[in-house]
Amino acid sequence: TNVALVLLYVLAVSWRVTKKQFDVLTWLTIAGGFVASFLVIYLFVSGITYRNIHRASLLVAGQETNPDYIALLLLLPLSLSIAGFIAAGGRLRKIASFSIAAVISGAIFLSMSRTALVAVVVMFVVFLIRLGLNRRILGVAAGLLVVLAAMPANFFSRIQQAASTGGDGRLDIWLAGLVVLKHYWLTGAGVNNFWVAYRDYAGNARIFRGYGRGSHNAYLNVAVELGIVGFLLMFAALASQFRSVRRLRAKLGQVPVRVVAFEAACWATLAFGLFGDILW
Predict the structure, then answer these.
(1) What pTM does this model have?
(2) CA distances from 144 to 33, 71, 109 (A)
(3) Per-residue model confidence as pLDDT tens digits over 4-37
């Protein structure tokens, strides 16, 4: 998987994409998110849930996807569909984009991922900052609130539970993870070795949460596994992306809505990384 991802990255940065190709890629991303979301909602309504704990996810041929990760993967299609609604000229396009965004957001919320909820809020804030408050932004906000209000009761129970359990033990894992970081900040523990290194320091948690736990924080994960060099390289890569958007904004005055959608999805993903292992 690691090799395949590197090759995909090399291909992506070596290809000069035309506007037509980019348009097709954007719509395929939205369509893929819509189809996956529709299936997630259909399975949930049919009573097929992740490990029978009443959380929606993508379950195909006996394979179950972690609800948090399916929600993460739907952030970009949601952002692009919101941008489609904001930029749409005709009524039919507005209705189609709004409906797609409603379905995708419904699937994200039904995953019961509290981290994804934070990410969606961050996404909306970026849209608000970049485009200002207008009728279409208010329409998006109203649509998201309606979908949120339609969620089952255990969705809101999970939000309340997070406050009383430290994010289902995340806070305790982070405290022990910081002790791990003290020992591996220079050389790193190695790729995918956070859970291995964690076993030796699991007892430093305020409440013991078991051995071999994941970091539940992408930044802590990178710092422990790749050390200070890998951590700085990751932030340098992120900074270069945002610098590109800033230069584009300086050149054009105001970037296209679709670029704002990518930026919003990026910020949402980074927010998700505060509470989840999303390195790969």
Answers:
(1) 0.91
(2) 17, 15, 10
(3) 989 998 998 898 889 999 999 999 999 999 999 9
